[in-house]
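Quick illustration, no need to memorize.
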Amino acid sequence: MTSKNAPIIVRLSGHTQTNDRLAIREMGRQIAEAEGRKAVEGEEDKDEEVGEDEVSHQDSFRHAEPY
């Protein structure tokens, strides 16, 4: 469907998009692709830097023990 009113289906995976920032980037990439545009890449979110004594969700996931 190429209609402007056609829905855009976005698919996400909890294994790949492990936090909100990655999920939103992937949504933007898929929406831009569906609209025939190229997504902007390489922009880093400097506001979301994690301090040395803070542990990010991704780090804690990486070190989690398997069931």
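Residues 1-67 form one domain.
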